[in-house]
C-alpha cells in the first residue's frame, strides 16, 4: 500500500481485518468480498452510519488529496455509489456527477442506469428525471479532456432511459408538469448537440452514439404515436387491460423505433408487478418487432436506432434473469432466442449487462449467446477479466504472463494472471466457464487445479475477520457458486530464496541478526497455522517471500508466507494436530525437506512441520543449500532412502553457529515425539536474539568467516525448486517385509 496512509505492523502481529461485501442485489453467498484494509483511504467513510453517508463521502473527498483522492474515489464506487443504489437514491447518485473523475463518473452512471430499470414510475417523478438529465448535461459540458467518445458513450443509456421515462410520464402528466417537461426537452436537446459535436466515425462506439442521438431527438419532442399515448395514459393501469395487448401488438408492428423503445422500457418498469406475465409480453413484443423489421429491411446492421433497441432487448433479458429468479429458464431461453439473430446480424460488441448472462451458469442461456457472438475461449477470458475489474476498485489485470490450467470435466478452466490492486502486486485466479455444452469424460483433475482451490479455501478460513502480518493476504474474492468465481491474492516480487541467492552472488552475506529475525517471523507463522488447525506440509525457502512494510520514517523487511497450496485444514483438531492425513494433492511433497514419516507413512502433523523448520534453519545459514547438499554425488532417491532406513542426518556446516545447529538437530529427531514444540524453539530463538541485541560482551564467532557450501549441480538445474514426490526406492522398500534397514540392504 502507499506509505502515505499504510501503517506499520509489527512482525507476527494479528490484526482485525474483516471482508466487506460489495454489490447490491446479490445474496450474501454470492457477493463480491473485499478486505477492509485495502480500502483504508475510505476508513472515515466506512466508519460512518448510513444516515450520514453523503456527508461522510464529501468529507473524505475533500480531506484526501493527490493520489489518495483518486484512490478514495476508486473505493467509493463499490461503497458509496452502491450504497446509494441499494437505497434507490437516484437524486444523490446523479449529484455525484459533479466529481471530476471520469472513472468514478462511469460507476455512477452505471448505478443510475440500473436504478432506472428497478424503480417504479411512482418512485421517479418528473422532477427527478429533470434533475438527472441536468446533472448529465453539466457533466458533459465539463468534460474537455480524456477520451470524449468513451465519456459520451458512457452517458447513452442513462439519457435514453431518462428520456423514455419522461415520455411515459408525459402521457399522463403533460398538463401538470409543463415546466419540468420543458426543462427536460432543453436538456435532451443540449445533450444531443454535445454528442453531435464529436467527429463522426465508423467504430462501434460512433454507431452507438448515432443511434442514441436519433432516438433522443425523437423522444424529446414528445410527439408520440396514438397507441403509445393510449397505452400509458394511466401508467398505473398500463399493460393491465386486454386492449393494451392490442396496442402493444400495433406498436410492435407499425410503431417507430422510438415508440418501440419506450414501450419495451415500460414493460421492464412494470416487471415487478407480475413477472411471469410481463416477461411473456416482453418476449412476444420483441419477437414481433424483429420479425416485422426483418420483412421491412434487408440491411439491419446499418440501422443505428434498431441497434439501440436490440441493446435494450439484451439489457432487459439480463435484468429479468438477475432480478426474477422465479422466471423459468425456458422463458428466458425464448427471450435469448429472440435477441440472438439481431446480435448475429448487427455484429455487436458484447454489452456490459450481457456478461451477467454469459456467466449465469445456465447452459440454456449461455450457449446461444456464445454461439451468436462467435466468442472464443480467449474472448470469454477477456469478458471475465472485465467483469471482475468492474466491482473491484482500481484492479488492473496484466495482459501478459497468463497461465491456463487443464480443463475441468465441465469445461471450466482456471486462468492465472498477474496484476495490480491499488499499489499491491497481486495474482488473480479466475474460474472461467467453458464455451462447450458437452461434458469431458474421464478427465483427471490436475494437481495444480486442486492446489489453487485448496489455497483459496485455506485463506478463506484463515482470514475469518483477522490477518497475520507474515502471511499473504487474500484481498478479494467471489465465493464458489457465484456468477464468476475468482480470488485476488497478494503477490511478491522477491522470494526469500531469491533474496538469499542475491546475497550469495554478491558475497554480501547476511549477518546473524538478519537470519534470526527471519527465523522468528517464519516460526510465528507456523505456530499461528497450528493454532488454527492447519498443517503447512511445504515449509521450504520457496514458500516464503520478502515484503517491505513502511511507516513515516523507516522501512522494515519481513519474511512472509506466500504459498498455502499444500496446506491442510481440519475442523477436527485431533486429526489435524496428530495422526495420518492423506496427501490430498497427490505426491507433491518436497522430497528432501519432508519428515521420514511423511515419506514412509503419508503422515503430516505439527511434528512433520517441525522437521521441515529444522531444515529451514540450515538452509538460511548456508545461504540456500537444500537439505543433504553435502552428498553431492548421490541422487535424492538414494539420499532419502538412507534417511528413512539408516537415519541419515544432515552435515553441520562450519557456517552454521552451534546453537542454531543444535536447535535444528532437535527438530530433526527421528522420534517425532521427542521433537521440541515450536513454541520452545521460538523462545530459544528469542533468547539468542536478546543476547545479540543487549549483551555486548558476548563475542559470537561470525559464521561469515567460513566459506558457504557450494550449491549442487542438481539444485541449480532445477532452478532451486525442490524435487517432489515419494522416491521410487522408498516405494520399492515398502514391498519388502521386515525392518526398514533390512529392506534397504536387501535392495
UniProtKB/TrEMBL annotation:
The lineage of its organism: Eukaryota, Metazoa, Spiralia, Lophotrochozoa, Mollusca. SUPFAM superfamilies: Protein kinase-like (PK-like) (SSF56112). GO terms for molecular function: ATP binding; protein kinase activity. It comes from Crassostrea virginica (Eastern oyster). Transmembrane segments: none annotated. Pfam families: PK_Tyr_Ser-Thr. Residues 412-688 form the Protein kinase domain. Signal peptide: none annotated. Keywords: ATP-binding, Nucleotide-binding. InterPro entries: Kinase-like_dom_sf, Non-receptor_tyrosine_kinases, Prot_kinase_dom, Ser-Thr/Tyr_kinase_cat_dom. This is Uncharacterized protein LOC111134624 isoform X1.
Amino acid at each position: 500500500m502507499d506509505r502515505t496512509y499504510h501503517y506499520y505492523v509489527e512482525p507476527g502481529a494479528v490484526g482485525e481485518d474483516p471482508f466487506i461485501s460489495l454489490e447490491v442485489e446479490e445474496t450474501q453467498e454470492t457477493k463480491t468480498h473485499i478486505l477492509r484494509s485495502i480500502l483504508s483511504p475510505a476508513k472515515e467513510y466506512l466508519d460512518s452510519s448510513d444516515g450520514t453517508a453523503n456527508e461522510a463521502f464529501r468529507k473524505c473527498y475533500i480531506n484526501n488529496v493527490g493520489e489518495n483522492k483518486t484512490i478514495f474515489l476508486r473505493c467509493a464506487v463499490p461503497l458509496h455509489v452502491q450504497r446509494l443504489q441499494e437505497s434507490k437514491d437516484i437524486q444523490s447518485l446523479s449529484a455525484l456527477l459533479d466529481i471530476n473523475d471520469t472513472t468514478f463518473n462511469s460507476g455512477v452512471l452505471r448505478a443510475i442506469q440500473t436504478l432506472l430499470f428497478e424503480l417504479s414510475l411512482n418512485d421517479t417523478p418528473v422532477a427527478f428525471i429533470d434533475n438527472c438529465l441536468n446533472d448529465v448535461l453539466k457533466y458533459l459540458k465539463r468534460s474537455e479532456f480524456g477520451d470524449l467518445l468513451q465519456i459520451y458513450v458512457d452517458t447513452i443509456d442513462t439519457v435514453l432511459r431518462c428520456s423514455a421515462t419522461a415520455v411515459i410520464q408525459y402521457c399522463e402528466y403533460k398538463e401538470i408538469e409543463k415546466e419540468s417537461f420543458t426543462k427536460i426537452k432543453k436538456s435532451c436537446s443540449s445533450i444531443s448537440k454535445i454528442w453531435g459535436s464529436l467527429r463522426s466515425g465508423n467504430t462501434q462506439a460512433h454507431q452507438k452514439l448515432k443511434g442514441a442521438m436519433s432516438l433522443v431527438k425523437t423522444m424529446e419532442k414528445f410527439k408520440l404515436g396514438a397507441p403509445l399515448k393510449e397505452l400509458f395514459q394511466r401508467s398505473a393501469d398500463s399493460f393491465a387491460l386486454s386492449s393494451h395487448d392490442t396496442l402493444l401488438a400495433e406498436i410492435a408492428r407499425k410503431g417507430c423505433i422510438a415508440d418501440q423503445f419506450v414501450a419495451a422500457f415500460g414493460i421492464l418498469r412494470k416487471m415487478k408487478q407480475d413477472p411471469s406475465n410481463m416477461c411473456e409480453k416482453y418476449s412476444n413484443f420483441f419477437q414481433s418487432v424483429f420479425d416485422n423489421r426483418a420483412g421491412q429491411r434487408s440491411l439491419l446492421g446499418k440501422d443505428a436506432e434498431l441497434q439501440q433497441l436490440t441493446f435494450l432487448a439484451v439489457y432487459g433479458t439480463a435484468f429479468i434473469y438477475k432480478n426474477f429468479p422465479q422466471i423459468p429458464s425456458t422463458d428466458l431461453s425464448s427471450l435469448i432466442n429472440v435477441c440472438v439473430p439481431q446480435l448475429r446480424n448487427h455484429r455487436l460488441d458484447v454489452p456490459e449487462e450481457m456478461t451477467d448472462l454469459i456467466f449465469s451458469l445456465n447452459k440454456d442461456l449461455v450457449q446461444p449467446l456464445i454461439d451468436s457472438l462467435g466468442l472464443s475461449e480467449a474472448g470469454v477470458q477477456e469478458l471475465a477479466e472485465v467483469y471482475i475489474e468492474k466491482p473491484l476498485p482500481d484492479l488492473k489485470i496484466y495482459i501478459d504472463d497468463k497461465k491456463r490450467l487443464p480443463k475441468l470435466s465441465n469445461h471450466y478452466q482456471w486462468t492465472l494472471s498477474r496484476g495490480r490492486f491499488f499499489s499491491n502486486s497481486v495474482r488473480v485466479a479466475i474460474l472461467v466457464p467453458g464455451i462447450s455444452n458437452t461434458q469431458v469424460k474421464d478427465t483427471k483433475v490436475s494437481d495444480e487445479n486442486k492446489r489453487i482451490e485448496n489455497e483459496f479455501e485455506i485463506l478463506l478460513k484463515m482470514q475469518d475477520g483477522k490477518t497475520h502480518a507474515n502471511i499473504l493476504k487474500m484481498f478479494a474474492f467471489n465465493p464458489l457458486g457465484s456468477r464468476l468465481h475468482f480470488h485476488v491474492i497478494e503477490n511478491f516480487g522477491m522470494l526469500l530464496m531469491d533474496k538469499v541467492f542475491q546475497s550469495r552472488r554478491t558475497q554480501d552475506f547476511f549477518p546473524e541478526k538478519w537470519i534470526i529475525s527471519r527465523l522468528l517471523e517464519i516460526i510465528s507463522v507456523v505456530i499461528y497455522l497450528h493454532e488454527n488447525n492447519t498443517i503447512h506440509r511445504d515449509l521450504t525457502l520457496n514458500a516464503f517471500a520478502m515484503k517491505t512494510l513502511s511507516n513515516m520514517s523507516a522501512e522494515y523487511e519481513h519474511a512472509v508466507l506466500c504459498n498455502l497450496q499444500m496446506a491442510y485444514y481440519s475442523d477436527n483438531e485431533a486429526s489435524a494436530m496428530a495422526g495420518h492425513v492423506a496427501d490430498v494433492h497427490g505426491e507433491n511433497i518436497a522430497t528432501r525437506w519432508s519428515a521420514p514419516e511423511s515419506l514412509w507413512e503419508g503422515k503430516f502433523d505439527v511434528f512433520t512441520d517441525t522437521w521441515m523448520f529444522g531444515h529451514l534453519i540450515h538452509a538460511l545459514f548456508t545461504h540456500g543449500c537444500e537439505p543433504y547438499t553435502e552428498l553431492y554425488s548421490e541422487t535424492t532417491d538414494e539420499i532419502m532412502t538412507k534417511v528413512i532406513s539408516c537415519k541419515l542426518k544432515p552435515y553441520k556446516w562450519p557456517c552454521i553457529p552451534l546453537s542454531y545447529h543444535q536447535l535444528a538437530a532437535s527438530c530433526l529427531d527421528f522420534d517425532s515425539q521427542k521433537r521440541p514444540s515450536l513454541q520452545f524453539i521460538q523462545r530459544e530463538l528469542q533468547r539468542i536474539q536478546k543476547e545479540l541485541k543487549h549483551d555486548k560482551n558476548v563475542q559470537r564467532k561470525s559464521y561469515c568467516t567460513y566459506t558457504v557450501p557450494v550449491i549442487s549441480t542438481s539444485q541449480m538445474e532445477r532452478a532451486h525448486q525442490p524435487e517432489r514426490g515419494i522416491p521410487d526406492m522408498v516405494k520399492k522398500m515398502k514391498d519388502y517385509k521386515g525392518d526398514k534397514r533390512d529392506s534397504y540392504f536387501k535392495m
